[in-house]
Predict the 3D structure of the following.
Amino acid sequence: MSWRVFAETESVCPVCLRVIAAEKAVGEDGYVYMRKRCPEHGEFSALLWEGDFVDYLLWNTAPGGGNEPAVTSAAEKGCPYDCGLCERHESAGCCVLLELTERCSLGCPVCFASAGEARRPDPTLGEIAALYDMLMARGGPFNIQLSGGEPTMRDDLPEIVRLGRERGFGFFQLNTNGLRLADEPGCAETLRAAGVSCAFLQFDGLRDSTYMALRGRALLETKLRAIDRCAAAGLPVVLVPTLAPGVNADEIGEILRFALAHAPAVRGVHFQPISYFGRCALPAPERRLTIPRVLREIEAQTGGLMRREHFAGGGAESSYCSFHASYRRESDGTLRALPRRTGGCCCKSSEARDFVAGRWGACGDGEPEDGFDAFLREANERVFTVSGMVFQDADNLDLERLRRCYINEADPERGPVPFCAYNLTARDGRALYRG
Amino acid sequence: MDEQKSYYVIDPEGKLTCHKCGVPLVKANAVFGYLDNAFPVELPVCPKCGFVYVPEDLALGKVLSVEKVLEDK
């Protein structure tokens, strides 16, 4: 294969995780690849963009600059070894994950956190309060993702949310498999009353075979019950499918239609094309799912209801890390694409933070509504968001992208660590950050 | 700015009077219109000339939020 190299960057060797030079190149098939060579472990290439090269360039609408973290630490070993965030990092935080437990009610064949059997005890409320304080000192408040493990394994989630709200955090998304929401009457009500903003619900499709492949159990009925219970409790739901080639990439359209039929209880769908880090029993395929392929699938599988041109890349992070489109569900049942948020807006993490909170979060505080309140609530409920985030693994890690990451993991020793650094694993499973 | 302030007078107790008509503003239903949308809201209104007083926190709060939604900002 001949290559047309058009850019240079840095990556890591997928075997030893040392930093190595990498180049971005167009292959004979017209797609964009990352190519790199480790002096010890040889050459590697990874598909970055299963689409036209010009589209790849045009996708980059993030202006860059002006979004630096408020507080950083000194860089000694350099990216990606000093994350926490170091002085070379270019984006302030938007969403921060709090890993509240390593316990999980599932033992998925696929898990970025390799959760299941707890190696460490759950952090105490005091330790969680200290994490919140650390985040406020590092430029908070951020949107908080209550994560794990499975966060609902803890009975003190209301107290954990209260600790955060007391400190000025205003948006809490519960990153959950939905088992407890489905099985325990009153759970969704309790969490909604405690101030959880939305359920970020693992929802991989509408076939039990999909759940068998990705989660090891037939879960469809449980997921449907979790959605019903959240809807009854007024706890908004965002469906979060992990998309794996050969497993559920053909369910994209079904998932979107299902989500629309369950709006406004379901506020949107957030796709996560699978990354090959953490615990991943699936082999990396020849063609991983990249942004243009997912957008083509969305267009084809929805029969053009949602189209490629409705979508834009990220603004406050690298454009190549995410995609999103917003729609308004009109009263006549049609769907209208809202203008794309490109160039000039949502280029700061703080704006992205408020945008996400507005689109996914519960609204209304029980006070009487005037015309504006009613409009804002109704507008919020009529907006349906389709988005996705493409995480990086050791094969396709681009340190330029990593430096613009705005999804962080809250680490008690290091501070906020970019998600794709925190979860980076070598091919033998060795983690850079996770103990 | 001076001209804008002259539409109403606030007395020391915070009561509002229409500057032009000299009568107290009363709570009444007003309707905001923006980009083909109408927003009924209760605000102080002059019963004589129809002047509507829009508090600053409303203008910079909910009204701004509504504008952002309508303009997708």
User: Anything to note?
Assistant: The helical segments of chain B are 2-5, 56-60, 62-71. Chain B has a mean pLDDT of 83. Chain B has one domain: 2-71. The two ends of chain B are 28 Å apart (CA to CA).
